[in-house]
Amino acid sequence: MVAGVAEAAVAAAAERGPAAGAPAGVPLCGVGIGWRPEIAGVVEGLPGLGFCEVVAEAVPAAPSRGVTELRERPGALRGLAAGVAVVPHGVRLGLGDADGVAPERVAHLAACARMFGSPLVSEHVAFVRAAGREAGHLLPLPRTREALDVLTENVRRTTAELGVPLALEPIAALFDWPDDEYTEGDFLTELLDRTGTLLLLDVANLYANARNRGQDPSAVLDRMPLDRVAYVHMAGGAVHPDDPTGLYHDTHQNPVPDEVLTLLAEVRERSAAPAVMLERDGRYPPAAELRAELDALATAAHLPPPT
């Protein structure tokens, strides 16, 4: 399933060749994967892996020295081949939190970037807590001027401490707030313009949101700031059989569907998108299937396969 539709979708893009270059100063390229302990052996055995993404909150702080003194990557990550870039990916910073970003979380993200020698870091356009209470989830922001002001200030505080570029990822949201003043694309464009940050374009999230909102994913893509894409996320999803709403969930536990691969080919037509990666979180397939899924991403993005 993962390659058939994508082959036809990328034929025209392959003939045209790469689009305009990626944003300057972001050296990520090729096909990458989200590193997880369960698939570490497969990841370390990929000779052509372009880069690897690591959840920042999964990197332990040195207990006696604090997060700002991280010096050595955890033992489980030492098997990565030399030269494979590692991108810390935050999930709990809460850039949309009205109470502001927690300094210790920013410090940990910055320490991870220094420890790995990372070319950039990434986080989500979301909030994770309110009034001191943790939600345990990435929650969507209302796309209003007020929320944009809060988000802008938090992003500026964060980038001032990081020392490397920051790429922002719009999330998969199962609901929208009733008083939105922007489309998602316009909201992101203004945010990137205000802050000078980059876009982590999650094609699976874009597909999920468009499908659940009854929108055309290609039309949504039209309004995205594709000239600012640092790299691309890809993942699988599904409609839960016990969900009466019929909503499509971004599960990270299913194969990437053909529709999302086709959308990736569209992204490649409109933007260089020189780096694309697979996210898997649970229900890990056999090694051969995982490699085949990475190869399908490479085909759709017109990039060299990592296997």
UniProtKB/TrEMBL annotation:
It holds the Pfam family MbnB_TglH_ChrH. InterPro entries: MbnB/TglH/ChrH, Xyl_isomerase-like_sf. This is DUF692 domain-containing protein. It comes from the Bacteria. Transmembrane segments: none annotated.
